Amino acid sequence: SQHSNTYLFKQYLLSDFLYQRKSYKQLEQLSNANKIYLSSSENKYSDYSVFEHLTNATLANIFQLNSKKKKDFNLQAVIDSFDDYVIVQYLQYSCRALNLEQLNDYQHNTLQADLLLNQLDETLKLKMTNNPFIATYYELWKTLRALKGQQEETSKKTIEKGPESAKQNTKAKQYFEQFLKVLKQNESSFSAKQLNDFYTFASNICIQQKRAGKIAYNKLLLDIYKQVLENGGIFTNSAHITLRKFYNIIVCAGQEKAFEWANKFIEQYLQYVEPNSQKSIEVFCKAYIEFQQTHYDKAIANLRFEVEAKVFFSKDALLNISARGLLIKAMYESQNEELKAYLETYIDSYEKYVRNQKNFTTNQQKAYTNFAKISRRLYRLPPYPHLKVLKPIEDKIKRLERLNNKEWILEKIDEFKKRIGA
Fold first, then answer.
1. Is 403 helix (H, G, I), strand (E, B) or coil?
2. pTM (2 decimals)?
């Protein structure tokens, strides 16, 4: 709940304050109290947070014992006392926490990782050489930390952020490529499930970076999907591949113009989708491939009646709204005036669907609603609008933080500008 999240965030701030003040006894007491609170909590990330507070309490206890013996705390002595399993656990949970922050904008306290993993010396590097889990998780941890720093840098409203942000982007991509290299080298050391976990981390990183406008990650993502499929994995621990994973693979292939590969993927892997959803995902993915090949009328023919059917992605509102958005884009692009005449009707239907979905977040509601409004406004423009009319629309689009299909909409603005010679 929101109240639970606010409470925990305040506790994290208090933990950091106590650590900075070296009030280790109070830190241990606070961490133990938080651990008990979370053990009975319905917070969906409580499993990760319990571990975090447990390890913070353990560290605080070690700090107290150490500070009694020596004037200066020797963190390296603590590291040396840990066996490989403990180090892997720290790395694993820290990576999961950082990954959840990226995916869900949820604050995690990674005090134990900051303390231990930033203190790597030759002893721990030797462990990395001998232990593929430590080596691979460490590269993943560095990547996720760099991406977090990149995200924080981007969010700063400073004039100087350009060069620093570019440097941070480069560092994160270098770390990520090193992680993929180390993962590839150590593949034979991992079970199928462990390998799937690593590649799921990798795919999530690429998807998040793509959403942030970093298109260079798209090819990396497609290569990851191909590698996993080659290894016999389908990104799931059950007999089925999830609808969103299936769709993400097709979107990735379509953006790389790998249409033949995408069609073969549908043919080979559709059987792994949950049976009741196979028709919906097949229709949607084939329509997406047609759209990417500029076969807009074929895309419309695939989608037009399916999106209004109650069984079409009835349990997955995000895929349903994505299919509706694709239909709107295809109708806008179509040269068939008969089909295009229905565009505003489908935009109205799209808006109604968004309003009726109670599970969409506020930001999702804004993004989808803005897409509908801007699409309708572009459709109503004359073929050769005056620049005085077009420029305010373009400026508004660029200012909008929440706008679905923003890249496509800006492409349509550029087409108008070329047409009028602007």
1. coil
2. 0.69
